[in-house]
Amino acid sequence: MPDVWARYPGAIRGEYGDSEALCEHLVALICAGTKTATCGALRDFEAEGEALPKEGDIEIVLHWDETPAAVVRMTQVVVQPFDAVTEDFALAEGEDATYAGWAASHKAYFARNGGWSADMLLVCQRFELVEVL
Q1: pLDDT tens digits along 1-34
Q2: Model's pTM, two decimal places?
Q3: Contact 133, 71 (CB under 8 A)
Q4: 66-124: per-residue pLDDT in tens?
């Protein structure tokens, strides 16, 4: 297979989850087309000096071992407080069947990765699957 990074110059790295099990679960949801949205804490982008993604950006989704799994294209990026996330967005993340489930799992995730608050700012991204590798 030709090098995916060469085929998508300027692509950003897509790293998901904070454990191998969670990462591989999320990658599988993306590859199946079930997960079409994601969010991350704005503080993490700022702490790492990472530019915010923008509409049209190409992201190469990585397995836990950093091998490429899929390619997605950002279709929308919005920065908003945790408590402003809509049910539609939460369900588009594909991880939970209900908004309440999404809220609980994401509160736990953010709590163990630097802290959670209802007004914490999230970078909410919607994307479309371009290619499964």
Answers
A1: 459 999 999 999 999 988 999 999 999 999 999 9
A2: 0.90
A3: yes
A4: 999 999 999 999 999 999 999 999 999 999 999 999 999 999 999 999 999 999 999 99
Q: Phi first, then psi: what are they for 60, rounded to 5°? A: -100, 115
pLDDT digits (tens, 9 = 90+) for 54-65: 999 999 999 999
Task: For residues 59 and 66, give the distance between their C-alpha atoms in angstroms, rounded to a whole number.
Answer: 13
Strand partners, 91: none
HSE, CB side, 13 Å, CA atoms: give it for residue 107.
10
CATH 3.10.400.10 fits 4-126, yes or no: yes
Residue type at 72?
V
What secondary structure, in 3-state letters, does 32-101 show?
A: CCCCCEEEEEHHHHHHCCCCCCCCCCEEEEECCCCCEEEEEEEEEEEEEEHHHCCHHHHHHCCCCCCHHH
Strand order from edge to edge, sheet including 121-132: 12-14, 58-62, 68-81, 121-132, 37-41
Report residue 58 CA to chain centroid gap. 13
